[in-house]
Design a protein that fits this description.
β4, α9 and β5 form a beta-alpha-beta unit. This protein has 2 domains: about 300 residues, TIM Barrel; about 35 residues, no CATH class. Strands 1-8-7-6-5-4-3-2 form an 8-stranded parallel β-sheet. It is α/β, with parallel strands linked by helices and about 375 residues long. The structure holds zinc ion (2 copies). The site of one zinc ion (ZN) has 5 residues, from loops. InterPro entries: HCY_dom, HCY_dom_sf, Met_Synthase/Corrinoid. Its cofactor is Zn(2+); methylcob(III)alamin. One of its GO terms (molecular function) is cobalamin binding.
Length: about 375
C-alpha cells in the first residue's frame, strides 16, 4: 500500500514540510460549537428531512408518509447539519482556522452506516462524508487564500461507530458481537470514499476505543486507496477510557501503537475522554516508542457534574505548552469542550517551540 502514489502530492508534501518545521495545530470540538446554537429538532431536519426521514430516498414498493415507519428524531444528529445547515458547519471550521488551526476535522464523526442507522439514515453515509469534506475544504481554501504562507488541511474523520467488534455489549453473552469486522470494513470503506471524494487531505481514524474497529477502518482505507490507485496520509488517534490507562478494549497506549503500526500512519496519538493532565503519561509513552509523528487533542479537562468541561483556554494551553517543551508533540489540538478560544491559546502556547524529533529505533519491532 505504501507504494501507491499520493492522491494530492503537493498537499502531502506541504503537510510533511509543516511537520518538519513546527508543531501543527488541529482544531477543537465540533459538538461544543454546534451546541452553542441551541438547535431544535426542526433545525436538524431542515427541508429535506422535515418529516424525520429523507424525502429524497426512494424505497421500492414503499410510499413514505405519516406512519410509514421511517421517521426518527434527528436532534443530536450533528453530522446531518452538513446537509441541513451547511453554512453553520463551514462557519465553525472558519472560526477554528481564524484561531490559527492548521488542520480542521470534518463533521463526520458518526457518518458511517453503522452509526447513522440509529437515525434511520444509514443510506446517507457516503453523501454525508462527501458533504462534510467539501465544507471543510471550502473553509480551508478560503483561509489559505488569505494567508498563503500557512497551508490548511482537511482531516477526514472516521469515528469509532456505536458498536465494538472485539467486545460483547452483553455481560451475560460474552461470545456475542453487535457487529462484525466485515460489516465495519464495508461501512468504513463507504465513509472513506466519501471523504476522499469531498477533498480530504488526510484521513484520521479517531477516538479509537476498540482496536479491532480501528483495524477494520484501516483495512477499508487501504481498499479505498487501492481502488483509486493513490493514497492520502493516515492519522490514528486512540482514546484511553479509564484510570488504569487502557482503551475500552483493554490496551495500553504502547499495545495500541504496536497494533496499528503496520499501517504506517503519518501520526499516532490520543484524544478525548481525558484532559491534558491525565493524558500526559500516555502521550509520553507514545512519544518514546513511536517512529512516526505524535498527536494529542485532549478534552478541556474531565467532565464536571453536568457533563460540561471547565478548563479555560489558559489552563489547557499552559499544560500543552509543557508537553511541547518536553518534546512530546508534533500535532496538538482539542477535543470535547474546546472552542476557538482554546485553539487560539494553544497556537500561542506552542508557537516557536520545536516539534518532537521522531526517534530512530534500533530494533525492527
Ligand atoms: Zn417511509
Ligand atoms: Zn472528546
Amino acid at each position: 500500500m505504501q507504494t501507491l502514489p499520493w492522491l494530492h502530492p503537493e498537499r502531502a508534501e506541504a503537510l510533511q514540510r509543516g511537520l518538519r518545521e513546527r508543531i501543527l495545530v488541529i482544531d477543537g470540538a465540533m459538538g461544543t460549537m454546534i451546541q452553542q446554537h441551541g438547535f431544535e429538532e426542526a433545525d436538524f431536519r431542515g427541508e429535506r428531512f422535515a418529516e424525520g426521514f429523507d424525502r429524497e430516498r426512494v424505497i421500492e414498493a414503499h410510499a413514505h408518509g405519516p406512519g410509514c415507519g421511517c421517521a426518527r428524531d434527528q436532534r443530536g444528529n450533528n453530522d446531518l447539519l452538513s446537509l441541513s445547515r451547511p453554512q453553520v458547519i463551514q462557519d465553525i471550521h472558519a472560526g477554528y482556522l481564524a484561531a490559527g488551526a492548521d488542520l480542521v476535522e470534518t463533521n463526520t464523526f458518526n457518518s458511517t452506516a453503522t452509526s447513522l442507522g440509529d437515525y434511520g439514515l444509514q443510506h446517507l453515509a457516503r453523501e454525508l462524508n462527501e458533504a462534510g469534506a467539501r465544507l471543510a475544504r471550502a473553509a480551508c481554501d478560503a483561509a489559505e487564500a488569505e494567508t498563503p504562507s500557512q497551508p490548511r488541511f482537511v482531516i477526514g474523520v472516521l469515528g469509532p461507530t456505536s458498536r465494538t467488534a472485539s467486545l460483547s455489549p452483553d455481560v451475560n453473552r460474552p461470545g456475542f458481537r453487535a457487529i462484525s469486522f466485515d460489516e465495519l470494513r464495508i461501512a468504513y470503506r463507504e465513509a472513506a470514499e466519501g471523504l476522499i471524494n469531498g477533498g480530504a487531505d488526510v484521513l484520521m481514524v479517531e477516538t479509537v476505543f476498540d482496536t479491532l474497529n480501528a483495524k477494520a477502518a484501516l483495512f477499508a482505507i487501504d481498499e479505498a486507496f487501492e481502488a483509486r490507485g493513490a493514497r492520502l496520509p493516515v492519522m490514528v488517534s486512540g482514546t484511553i477510557t479509564d484510570a488504569s490507562g487502557r482503551t475500552l478494549s483493554g490496551q495500553t497506549a504502547e499495545a495500541f501503537w504496536y497494533s496499528v503500526r503496520h499501517a504506517q500512519p503519518v501520526s499516532i496519538g490520543l484524544n478525548c475522554a481525558l484532559g491534558a493532565k491525565e493524558l500526559r503519561p500516555h502521550v509520553d509513552t507514545l512519544s518514546r516508542i513511536a517512529d512516526t509523528h505524535v498527536s494529542a487533542h485532549p478534552n478541556a479537562g474531565l467532565p464536571n457534574a453536568f457533563g460540561g468541561y471547565d478548563e479555560t483556554p489558559e489552563d489547557m494551553a499552559g499544560m500543552l505548552r509543557e508537553f511541547a517543551q518536553s518534546g512530546l508533540l508534533n500535532l496538538v489540538g482539542g477535543c470535547c469542550g474546546t472552542t476557538p478560544a482554546h485553539i487560539a491559546a494553544i497556537v500561542e502556547a506552542v508557537r516557536g517551540l520545536a516539534p518532537r524529533e521522531i526517534p530512530r529505533l534500533s530494533d525492527a519491532a
